[in-house]
Write a structure and sequence with these properties.
By secondary structure, the protein is of the alpha+beta class. It has one domain: 2-Layer Sandwich (TATA-Binding Protein), CATH 3.30.310. The protein contains two helices and five strands; from the N terminus they run αβββββα. Strands 1-2-3-4-5 form a five-stranded antiparallel β-sheet.
């Protein structure tokens, strides 16, 4: 087993990039938690509060060196992104689905 330390600067850089792209989601009844494990991997926990309850989805964000692109895993789907800025589109669609579900149940 090899143990390597990961620089906090690299984790912070990924965190700030994700925060900048998800900042438009900040509104009433929507919250998220970004957890960075390295400069190449993070998870986003989305929480949507509706009339009928609370829904939570976890989104895994990973940089694949083989494909040289960001890959997002969520809801049994794999999204290959051309840039990290596309993550806002994915999260907005997930939030819309969750909001619709929470108001109709």
């Amino acid at each position: 087993m090899i143990i390597e330390n990961i620089s906090n600067d690299k984790q912070t850089k990924l965190f700030m990039a994700l925060e900048a792209n998800l900042n438009s989601l900040k509104k009433r009844n929507i919250s998220y938690i970004i957890t960075c494990y390295s400069d190449l991997m993070a998870t986003i926990t989305l929480q949507v509060n509706g009339k009928k309850g609370l829904a939570t989805k976890i989104i895994a964000v990973n940089y694949e060196l083989l494909h040289v692109s960001w890959v997002v895993y969520s809801e049994n789907k794999k999204y290959i992104l051309t840039g990290l800025s596309e993550i806002s589109t994915i999260t907005k669609s997930i939030v819309a689905k969750l909001s619709t579900t929470l108001t109709k149940i």
